[in-house]
Amino acid sequence: MAYTNATFYLDPISGSDSARTALTSCTASNPSGTIARINKTAHGLVTGAVVDLTLFSAWLNDAFSITRVDADNFDLDNTVWQATADASGTATPRGGMNKADAWKTFSSGATNGRITAGDTIRTIASVDPTSLGQTATWTKASKTVTLTTAVTADIDTGESAWTASANVTSTTSSTRKEGSLSASNAIAVGFVTGLAAYKAMSATDFSAYQQISLWIQVNAAFTAGQLQIKLCSDNAGVTAVNTFNLPAMPVANVWMPVTVDNAGALGASIQSVALYVAADFGAVTVLTDNIIACKTAGGADSLSLQSLIGKVWNLNWAASTTYASNDIRKPTSPNRNGFRYKVTAGGGGSSGSSEPTWPTDIGATVTDGALTWTCDSLEETWDPIQSIRGTTILLDSGPGTLASSGRGYGGTTETVTTYKREPLLLTPQSGTTAILGAFQDSGSASARLTFSGGWDRTNMTVQSGETWLSGQGSTGTMYDCNGKSFLTLSNLNSVNCNNGFFNSVSGGSARLENCHAVGSNTSSLSVAAVSTYVYELAGFVASNNTGVGISAGADTQRIAGRCVAMSNNTSHGYGGNSGVLTSIDLSYVELKNNGGYGANAGATTRTKRFSNVVASDNSSGTFESASTDFIIGGTCTDTDSTIASAATNFSGTGVYINNLNGGGAKLYIDGGTIAQATDQRNTASGYSWKFNPTSTARSTFYPLVLSVAKVACSASSLVTLTIYVRRDSTNIAGRLMVKGGQIAGVGADAYTDCTPSANTWTQYTRTFTPTADGVVEVTFEAYDGAGTTNSLWIDDFTASQ
C-alpha cells in the first residue's frame, strides 16, 4: 500500500457498505516539486480519504490517502512524481472517509480490501447519558433500583389473560420478564389479519407520555409492521387512538425489548390495549410483558426497557467544574484507564482547566485545581433493564433472563443521582451471526489495526463519548474477532446479545481497552475451544450476563490485563470451562455478586494469577480450584468472606492469597488452610505460619505442605536447619522436611518429626551433608488424621552451614 495509518469512519445506524462510485477520466500532473496531483471536477473527496488508482501508469496504480486541494483537485500523499502519467485513469474511493461517508458494518464495510495494518476505524458514539432528574436507591446484591418518582406508567403487566378474537387463544405464560406471568396470545392459521386480542382497563390518561415500551417474544420471525400494538379509546380494542408498528424480529423464541415513538402525546382516555396482525404469518404465539408508557423520545427522563441505567459516578470528569466532597468521576474517554476517582480534599471547589494525569494505583492522589482526587476503585458500568413498574426498576442479566433470575447490582448500597443512556439499536441477528460482522483483517506487531468507539455524533472528530450497541435480543455476537491478530478494540461496548466479544476460529490476538459488555445471554467475552487466542484486557467489564462473565475454552489461550471487573453474572465471574491450558494473569480485579464462583478454574491446568482482588457476595465462594493453582497477590479484600475453605471447593492444589483483608497470606487447599498468623508467635514481631487441617484425609500420607525456604549448600559441609513449632492438640503433628533427590548426598528424605507438648513452643533441628554444591527446598508438613479443628504453628526458621 502506498498509504499508511489511514482513518476510516463507521456508523452502524446510518452508514453504508456499498461500493463507492468510481471517479473516471481523472488526470495526473506534477504542478511543482515532487507533488502528484489528480484533477477530477467535483471529486467530492476530503483530506484523509483513501482511493485506489487504476488505468494509470504502473507506478500510480496503487492505493493512496489524499489531501484535498480544492473541489476539483487532490494530491496523493507520500508520493514522489516519477514520470508523465497517462492522460486518463480512474480513482475509486474506498468510502468511510468521514461521517457522511461512513461504513455500516465491520464485515462488509471495513473489509480486508479496504483496510490494512495500522489503520484506525472510528465508530460513532451513542447518545450521551442524561439525568433522570432525581436520586435512586441502589441496593447491594439486589436487582432492585428504586426511583424517587416514577417516570413511566403501566399499560399492561401481563399478569392476566387478554380477551381473544376468533381463532386466537389468550392465556398467560410463566415465561416472563416481569412479575409472575406474561400475556400469551396464540394465533391460529385461520385468523389471517386484524384484531387478535385486547386487554380492557379503566380509562387512563397517558397524554404525559409519547412512547410505549414492552418485552415481546414470538415463536416465529416477523417483519417490520407485521405486528401492531394499539391504544384504544373503547374497552374492546376497536377504536385506535395510537397505533405502534413493531420493528422486525428475525430471531424466534427470544425476548426482545421494544420501544416505539408515537411522535406526539398518547391518548388522554385509553380504555384498552390491543394486539393486531397487519400481515398474516400463519400460526404463531405472541408473548408480551411489562407494556409501559414512556416520556418524550430524547427527553432526559424518557426511560424505557431499551435504556441502560447508571449512577452519576459513571460520568466523565469535566474541566472548570465544581465538585463536592466524595463526588466520583472517571477520566474523559481518551484518558480512561479502568479506574474511577473520588474527591477527597477541596470539596466545593473547582476542577482545573485541563485534565490531570490520573494515578493508576488504588489510594494514589492527584491535585486538580482546588481539588484532590484519590484513585478509588474500578469503574462501574451501565446496567440493562429487566422491568419498570412505577418507581421500581429491576436490572437484567440478558434478554433470556426471566423475572425470577438474575443477579442485579454488586456495588455499594447508596442513594445517588441516577442517569440513563440509550444504546444504538442494531438489527437482531439469528444463530451465531456477528451483529456488526466479523473482523476481516489483521494488524501487525508494529502496526495494530484499531477499532475505536466514542467519536462525537456531529463530525466524529473528537472522542468525547462512548459507543454502546444493542443487539436487541440477538442470538449473535456483537464483536467477533474472527481469529484476526494484532487488533485493538477501544471504547466499544455491547448489550442484549449472545456474546459481547467472541473469537470464533483458531488463532489471533486482541487488546480490549475500556470495553464493557453487559446483558449477554452467554458471556461478555467468550473464547471458543481450541482457539489459541490471546486477549489483553485494560478496563474491561463483564457484568450482568446470563452465563459466565469471561469464558475461556480449551488449549492455549492467554487472558491477561489490568482493571477487570467480572460481576453480577448468573454463573461464574470467570469460567475455565473445558479449557486445559488457559493462562490467566489479571491485576486489579473485581469479583462481586456472581451466581457461581467469582473465578472458577474448571479443568484448566495452568496457574491462574490474580492480584489486588476485591470480592463479595459470590454465591459459591470467590475462588474454585480444580486441577490448578490460583495465586492471589497484592492486597485483596473479601468483604463478605466468600472465599470458601471447604474441601469441596478446592479439589486441586489450592488458592494462595498474598494479603487477604490486610491479614497476611493464606493458602486454601482441599482439606485445609495455611496462613500467616499473629495469634501465636514465638517472637513478639512479624508473623508465624498456621496450619489448619479441615479433613481427616490430611494424614501423614497426605499432609499440608508449605515451602519454607530455598537454601544454598556447599559440598561436604554440614547444613543445620532449625524451626520453632507449637500446636494446640496432640492430635496434630508436623515434620521439617528436605525431600530426597534434590542434591547429591541426600538420596532419601531427610526430616525431623515435630511433636511438641500442647500450647508450648519447641525448637527442632534437622541436619544433612550434601556431596555437591547446589540449592535445596525446605518444606514443612502438618497432618492430623484424628480431628479437623486443630492448629499447628511454625516460626523463626534458620539455616546455617
Q: Indicate the radius of gyration in whole angstroms.
A: 32 Å
- The average pLDDT is 92
Number of strand elements: 58
Kindly report how far apart the N and C termini lie: 67 Å
Shape: globular
The helix/strand class is: mainly beta
The helix fraction, in percent, is: under 10%
Count of helix runs: 0
Biggest β-sheet, characterized?
27 strands, mixed
**DSSP strand content:** 35-45%
- The stretches of 5 or more residues where confidence is low (pLDDT under 50) are 644-651
SSE layout and pairing:
Blueprint (H helix, E strand, L loop, with lengths): L6 E4 L12 E7 L7 E3 L10 E5 L8 E8 L2 E4 L12 E5 L26 E5 L5 E9 L5 E4 L5 E4 L6 E2 L3 E6 L8 E6 L6 E11 L6 E8 L8 E6 L7 E6 L10 E6 L8 E8 L6 E11 L13 E4 L16 E2 L9 E7 L19 E4 L2 E8 L4 E7 L2 E4 L18 E8 L2 E2 L23 E7 L11 E4 L6 E4 L6 E4 L1 E12 L5 E5 L2 E12 L6 E10 L6 E2 L6 E10 L6 E2 L7 E10 L4 E4 L7 E9 L4 E4 L4 E5 L3 E2 L15 E4 L8 E4 L2 E6 L10 E6 L10 E10 L5 E9 L5 E6 L11 E5 L7 E7 L5 E10 L8 E9 L1
Parallel strand pairs: 1-8, 8-31, 30-32, 31-34, 32-35, 33-35, 34-36, 35-37, 36-38, 37-38, 37-39, 38-40, 39-41, 40-42, 41-43, 42-44, 43-45, 44-46, 44-47, 46-48
Antiparallel strand pairs: 2-3, 2-7, 3-6, 4-5, 4-7, 5-6, 9-10, 9-29, 10-28, 11-21, 12-15, 13-14, 14-21, 15-20, 16-19, 16-21, 17-18, 17-20, 22-27, 22-29, 23-24, 24-26, 25-26, 27-28, 48-49, 49-50, 50-51, 51-58, 52-57, 53-56, 53-58, 54-55, 54-57
